[in-house]
Amino acid sequence: MPFPHPFYRWRPHPWHGLDIGKAPPNRVHAYIEITPFDTVKYEIDKKTGYLRVDRPQRTSSQPPTLYGFIPRTYCGERVGRLCEGASGGDGDPLDICVFSERPISRSEVVLNVRVIGGLQMIDDGEADDKIVAVLENDSLWGDAEDISQLPTALAERLRHYFLTYKQLPGEPSNVTLDTIYGHEHASAVVQAAIEDYQDEFGE
What we know:
By secondary structure, the protein is of the alpha+beta class. Helices cover 18% and strands 28% of the residues. The mean pLDDT is 92.
């Protein structure tokens, strides 16, 4: 008996084997690596597609939102050109932070989300944008279309987290994060990351 279509005999790689989403660059999938409850930094293993323990969080900071990446995106030359002062993209899938009213405590889940903005972050000279999105059909945030529609404090929590989560007392920071941008620029960054992925890996 043939397998139903689509059917994966083996687990698809979350970066390369999952769909980008319903209507990119505005409505996309988010693959979640870290939840707001995690005190350990998990990161996708690019070779196997499984989550790997990257490091315990060095400080008491915990991510204020769900955190992961958009499948089939890549931060290359196009993403770098959209980030003034960056030497290029960081060579990773495009990061995404997702607001959800209901606590989601599990990682390795796929969410349908709407892109509403982003944070223009440079890490060690490379563009490391953090796209901001809301969970589709979320009772509280689901109707938001731009980051300006969220309380300012929420974006500032994200800014503070990413400016400090790697920092140790007495050590200089290699991270800058000067700009929080809205939906229009965020969509351009997502589209650039989709095209960078196609250049790097093909369709």
